[in-house]
Amino acid sequence: MNNKQRWMGGVVLLGGGVLLAALLLKGQDEINHDRQQNPAQAAEVENKESGNHSLGSLTVDVETEKRLLEQQRRDREKAVAEQEARAAEFLAMQQQAEADAARKAAEEYAALNAHRMGQQSSDNIPPELVEDEQAKQKRLAEEKALQEKKLAQQQLDQQKANSSTDAAKKEAERKAAESKAVEEKRKLEQQQKAEAERKAAEAKRKAEEERKATEKKEAERKAAEEKRKADEKRKAEEAKKKAEAEQARKLLEGEEDKQWMVQVALAANEANADAVAAKLRAKGYKVTKSPTSKGIRIMVGPSKDRDTADALRKKITSDASLNMKSAWVNDWVPLDKR
């Protein structure tokens, strides 16, 4: 019975060890495979980006690469965690199976010994069972040390993978920063170019407006000059026509020899007439005296037309020093022409 139980325990231990080793090797192969595949995928993505995408879409590709690397890192961590969990589960199952086998063997041996010796004692364990227990404990310690070593190696590999991921992430960030700087530089150049074009267009528009304003002013000046000349010509023609009409009227009415005088006073005697005449002559007027049946007329003139005589009348009446408010214009023909 003891040999059978030992044989069964050994088979369980051997099967669990083989299964655990297979799982650990499979997890390590998957990790190595992912580690080998990731640089190739990153290089392939990088080559595709550099060959097919323009500068404007580089930022989007970098973000996509970052997401792919992050997803691969999470998948890798998940696979490692699953392998570790399965390894720990099988290790616990193996340890439980070993413990159950040892307990069952000890119980059967104690029952057999109690049956033989008539007492129930579990202290009398055979030396070979003690030796098997020591070998089992040693083996378990070695397996535990191996498992810890493998876990440490896995952690180291994970750290290396994380370092590679961080390096790839930093490189992607660096490329993104470079592409961003290039894009900002391009945008700045476009803005400067657009600003220069806007200023040139503004200067051209202002120059065109100034040219049009100058042309408009010149046209207005020419139009005003032409209008002034036309008005002067029209006025000259009107004056000429008026003079010709006046000359014709005088010829028709016989007023060619008529003169216009401004009569300023009617003196009762010669002395008064001389006094008024002296005052007017002192002002520079040409004075004529003409005796009538009612007195002596004092007149200033003569003038060639009535308008000139009327202007002379207004000048005399407005002179307060002369005090001659009742002056008037009349036509006068000299005696030698009457």
Shape summary: rod-shaped
Oligomer: single chain
Question: What is the chain-wise order of helices and strands?
Answer: HHHEHEEHE
Total domains: 2
Region (Disordered): 34-61, 115-250
Biased composition (Basic and acidic residues): 133-151, 167-250
Biased composition (Low complexity): 152-161
Domain SPOR: 254-331
Protein model, in words:
- The chain is an alpha+beta fold and 338 residues long.
- The chain has 2 domains: 190 residues, no CATH class; 81 residues, Sporulation related repeat (Alpha-Beta Plaits, 2-Layer Sandwich), CATH 3.30.70.1070.
- Helix content is 78%, strand content 8%.
- The chain has 5 helices and 4 strands, in the order αααβαββαβ.
- The protein has a 4-stranded antiparallel beta sheet with strand order 2-3-1-4, covered by helices on one side.
- Helix 1 packs antiparallel against helix 2, helix 1 packs parallel to helix 3 and helix 2 runs antiparallel to helix 3.
- The termini are far apart.
- About 3% of the residues have low confidence.
Task: Name the features.
Alpha-Beta Plaits, 2 domains, alpha+beta, single chain, 4-stranded antiparallel beta sheet, 338 residues, 4 strands
Tell me the layout of helices and strands.
Layout: H1 2-52, H2 58-117, H3 127-253, E1 259-267, H4 270-282, E2 287-291, E3 296-303, H5 306-317, E4 328-332
Antiparallel strand pairs: 1-3, 1-4, 2-3
Helix pairs in contact: 1-2, 1-3, 2-3
